[in-house]
Amino acid sequence: MSRQSAVLLDAMAYLDPELVLSAAPPAAAQYKKRRPLWVTAAAVIAAAALLMGAAGVLNRYFSLGGFEIESNEQHFSIDLSAKGPVAVKDGRLYFEMDGQRTDITDLVDEHTPYLYTAYNASGQVFSHILAGGTPEDYGWVEIWFDAAKQRYVWAGKHGEISGNGLLGQDLEPAAGEEVADIMDCPWIAPGVEQIAASLN
Amino acid sequence: MEDSEIIALFFQRDQRAVEACRSRYGPLCASVANRILPTPEDGEECVNDTLFRAWNSIPPQHPKSLPGFLAALTRNLAIDRMRANTALKRGGGEIPLVLEELEEAVPAPGSVEEAVDSRLLAESISRFLRSLPEKERLLFLRRYWYLCSVKEAGALGGMSEGTASSLLRRTRNKLKKHLEKEGFVL
Questions:
Q1: Low-confidence winner among A59-63, B94-98, B170-174, B178-182 (lowest mean pLDDT)
Q2: Which DSSP state fits A33?
């Protein structure tokens, strides 16, 4: 590779922001990627703040859906005030991500979720978002793998209900039932099953 | 808080500007960083670096588009971080592949060697991109701005990896001709 191609790559930082933002990838690829089979283990649902053991640097980051997370090996907390990627407009339910809006009204119901899977440039999954319900009664849940802590994390909102917790090292299909009960959203269970299947 | 209010806070050297940026555009920056960098922790550090850089840049800069400015800062910092990884033999993600592909878009050398102005070059590329059909433009930007893999960039546009690869090749050739026509020498 040459210096010239690097000049091109760097110059693109100055492209018209309107053009750039219009192309923000939704990362909602519906294709599945083969993943190694995860070792089965018991799922653990935990409360918002957890004592985890040894001390560590406090990490602060945003999840894809906008939740703000603080964690180290002693502490784990999520700010659940994020507006989230689901919104209703003119009686239709929309999934909004990275500047793109998808009408999911006819794709979801009380038992059927919409699954959004985000990949990084290396092709690794870094987050899943499930949305479901109806325009009158909808919600969303994000599930991601906290690489530093070697566990799955979930957080979600459904009307006045907000919740989050840990799902352990492995994502078991049955974990979706527990999250669905907590959030009072039946569509979460088949969504988690779908995610778990995609990991196999 | 509106973008103009956030920028005003920057100019007043009020640190609430940083938190407002984090709250409003943290997810966007994280999305950009996480596509380029290998782990969420790298992405998180990159977003923090972005906000620090924004604090040091505004003023004197006064971005027309705050999200565009922050996204570009994030991209630059993430690419720098991946280049450092490459130098340390830890792998450079999509960057080496993207650079190899962009070779095809480099204009032929002219008779006059001169330092290229990145902003003028970017303006020219922006003009070129506006002339493309939407599908082609989105594919190009997702591959070369957001550094999506060819497979993901194609899938997002409803194309197979092979189709996306072919279309990207044609677009690179068109870009090369466009840059030559506009007199750029890299």
A1: A59-63
A2: -
